[in-house]
Amino acid sequence: MGIVLLIFCIAPLRCLFPLQQQFTIMFDPTGDTQNVGRSIKDTYARNLTLQWVEAIKCDVEIKCPEIMVVLTRLSGETMQPLQNANFANQFNIDLYLNLQLYKKFDHKARLMFFTFLYVADYIGVWPHSEQLTF
Predict the structure, then answer these.
(1) Confidence (pLDDT) at 77
(2) Which of 3, 5, 4, 2 is nearest to 95 (CA)?
């Protein structure tokens, strides 16, 4: 099983140099009640990603009380287009994580890092040379 983790930092300087105040992360698991995602063994991607982010949320909130974790959906919810963006804006999210799983057994999964920078009217994207393979 492969894992895709897309990381978007809304406030990049706060991500690099967190302040002593609350830091908010939003996890966006793949799928909803209408979009089950890929079939993986005897379940679907939407179930696995939701279980995964719920476990991560519990660990982060216990180990890092200054970090608030918000999920874009709960079990049984249906997401509307652009609902996640509105939700993230309401919570003033510092870091947005979209988690996806895919079925691929013949290759190792890779986690690639990209830096997104938004300053005034300029958007820059730089891939990092480091890749995690597991």
Answers:
(1) 64
(2) 5
